[in-house]
Amino acid sequence: LIEVGRKQRALETLLEVIKSRRHRTWTITHEPLMEKLLELCVDLKKNQIAKDGLHQYKTIAQTVSAKSLELVIMKFLNQGELRCTNARKEA
Hints:
Order of helices and strands: HHHH
Shape: globular
Largest sheet: none
Keywords: Cytoplasm, Initiation factor, Protein biosynthesis
Helix content: over 70%
Domain eIF3a PCI: 1-90
GO molecular function: mRNA binding; translation initiation factor activity
Protein name: eIF3a PCI domain-containing protein
Strand content: under 5%
Pfam family, one: eIF3a_PCI_TPR-like
Number of domains: 1
Oligomer: single chain
């Protein structure tokens, strides 16, 4: 979906996967899904969806893999800072 320019739909699909009951047990595949979800949120400026996704991921990962939660949050913050820096350079 991303490659054909449907970023909004891709974002909605990833959020549905993270929120679904079938995926309540943390696995290593959740981490790249969250990274892509947050990357799309930064690109599309959807901070509320990012907040919802992080909240769901916290629920899934905090007992099993707190380190994964930390890595996802740090990557999200770095993406936001990078985007802000690039915007300042362009202005």
